[in-house]
Design brief:
Length: 359
């Protein structure tokens, strides 16, 4: 990955040359200073200096250093220097649309252009797309990982080699990669507490398995934490683990609700899982909120409230704020030529509708 650092170093030096073109005998930082700044070897730094000398941008005096060649007419910066790429699992959900909107707004305000790429993880590996993006001169990457909890090796190597990378929606614990995400533990805990405050004592959870990602695992932990803090028994029978691609998804959810009639509250994953929750509740004749109070993660059904059996209370991520924060963090890294290990958690909000309103 030293070739990526070499490109960063060269662009950094070109920017210094542009900014100080009119300063007589301006001395550039030494190879050692640049190597320390970019946390790399002197050999990598030396390559950038050597190319700039060959191209006539600088001249070097042995024992004194490297200086700007003021007779060079023009400094040509990389045309892709102001481009940032966002890698996405899809571009169809309201959450991702809002996330992209927030990131694009901040990037545009700061002179950057946003490129969107939606590819499956295995295709990223096979096509070597991450390395290709960097080779083309993209200055930074915002990554929305998929649900499998596996992260593309090239992305992690980029981050380890101090290329500006920020992950969104997932916090990578024990790995030095910056991320901006919702506090998924607090999100789930806040939702369960809302149901408890409404009088619920037996609260069910319909969720993806914990190994589908750190965010899912933290949501499960938040469900458990709320129970412990309220001295409520955590019943394994009150939790249903499903995936969106299960052929018998509807049957599993229907059986779960049918065989747990004591449930008076339910917190569920959204997407196609939530649609099947709606279907099962309608088929079983469960009255919401009289028999069962229901909450969903995220606000995915707000456009369909008029045709659904009931309008659902949701615990909602601030997706636009996540995008804005991720872009701001990435810009800081790109401008400072220094990458941090920031883990930023964004709060969430409850939007209450009839599914949890008091009778």
């Amino acid at each position: 990955m030293s070739k990526f650092l070499y490109k960063q170093i060269k662009e950094y030096l070109l920017q210094l040359i542009t900014d100080n073109k009119r300063v007589p005998h301006y001395k550039l930082p030494s190879e050692n200073q640049i190597a320390v700044k970019f946390n790399t070897s002197r050999i990598t730094a030396k390559r950038a200096f050597a190319e700039l000398e060959e191209e006539g941008y600088i001249y070097r005096i042995q024992g004194k250093g490297s200086f700007i060649n003021t007779e060079k007419e023009e400094v040509k910066l990389d045309n892709a220097a102001n481009f940032v790429c966002m890698l996405l699992p899809n571009i169809g959900s309201d959450f991702i649309s809002s996330l992209v909107s927030g990131a694009r707004k901040v990037l545009k305000q700061n002179g950057y252009h946003l490129l969107l790429m939606s590819e499956k993880e295995d295709e990223l590996v096979q096509a070597n797309l991450v390395s290709s993006l960097v080779a083309l001169g993209v200055k930074g990457i915002i990554v929305f990982p998929n649900n499998s909890a596996r992260y593309n090796k090239d992305l992690l190597l980029l981050a380890f080699n101090k290329f500006p990378v920020v992950f969104v929606d997932r916090t990578l614990h024990n790995i030095d990669v910056s991320s901006v995400s919702s506090d998924h533990l607090d999100m789930s805990k806040k939702a369960v507490q809302h149901l408890i405050d409404k009088g619920c004592k037996n609260i069910g959870l319909i969720t993806m398995p914990a190994d589908y990602g750190n965010s899912t695992a933290r949501r499960i932990s938040g469900y458990e934490r709320a129970h412990m803090e309220n001295n409520l028994l955590i019943k394994s029978s009150n939790i249903l683990y499903v995936t969106k691609d299960m052929p018998d998804l509807n049957e599993r959810i229907t059986e779960f609700l049918q065989f747990n009639p004591e449930l008076d509250g339910l917190l569920s994953y959204g997407d196609i899982i939530g649609i099947n929750v709606y279907s099962a509740i309608k088929m079983l004749g469960i009255q919401v909120p009289k028999d069962l109070m229901v909450m969903f993660f995220d606000n995915e059904y707000m456009h369909y409230q008029e045709i659904l059996p009931f309008s659902s209370t949701s615990i909602v991520q601030r997706s636009k704020e996540i995008g804005e924060t991720a872009a701001t963090l990435l810009i800081k890294y790109m401008r400072n030529h220094a990458v941090g290990n920031d883990k930023i958690m964004i709060d969430c909000d409850i939007i209450e509708r009839e599914s949890t309103r008091d009778n």
